Amino acid sequence: MSSQAMLNQSLFEEQEMIISSQLGIFPFHTNLSSSLPLLGFNQPLKTLSADSPLITLSDHSTLTKQKEDFTPHFSGLPHLLSLQRSAASNYWAWGELSDCMSMKRSGGEDHLGVSAMKMKKIKARRKVREPRFCFKTMSDVDVLDDGYKWRKYGQKVVKNTQHPRSYYRCTQDNCRVKKRVERLADDPRMVITTYEGRHIHSPSHDEDDSQASAQLTNFFW
DNA sequence: CGGGTTTGACCCGCGC
DNA sequence: GCGCGGGTCAAACCCG
């Protein structure tokens, strides 16, 4: 098995660990030490070093059960999961993607996760939206460098939070990807970034990095 | 001057 | 039907 294949396998093993755990923030305990690809929805972004705060995995179609009535269970859909290691501490953050899932929170009780019951209601009511993908980061800066160029188009103070939510659009022509950035109400050190849509282009800079990660991308897509 | 940010107004979906 | 609140628009502003 090639080293990259082994890396790929270890990533998925790690992903399984995350999935079978409680959704949210998880202790970081992995031996991943080589550089890893950071992936967009179906686009490579850039290759990051082991010290990078961002690692993204993809293509896991089923989330295992956690509790009977609170089962975020997806099957056969092109979901993404994201694993993210905080640069400031040893934690993994999780992210998930679905075709119509809302990250709406109620009274701060839901962190990033949304109960299955709520998701079913949302899914039944909402029309199909662009794929969404979100994750938490412990970071001083709100906007992480993900290789793409963004333009801010709005800011909003959301209820029950003291920190405003910022709205960004990809500056590339014809690319409709958006992202929202906000800080967690009960832990302002945590930044929640939500991406919506798929990039139709490569990252706007770091040619070498995107080239390097393109090789690794084949293991995920 | 061009590109990005700010910010108040507006739109619209959702819950009651 | 109405009000609330999240998301978007767009004019004004800022900055290199």
Automatic annotation (TrEMBL):
The WRKY domain, residue ranges: 139-204
PROSITE patterns xrefs: WRKY
Sorted UniProt keywords: DNA-binding, Nucleus, Transcription, Transcription regulation
Localization terms from the record: Nucleus
Main location: nucleus
InterPro entries per record: WRKY_dom, WRKY_dom_sf, WRKY_plant
Molecular-function annotations in GO: DNA-binding transcription factor activity; sequence-specific DNA binding
GO cellular component: nucleus
Superkingdom of origin: Eukaryota
Protein name: WRKY protein
Organism: Salvia miltiorrhiza
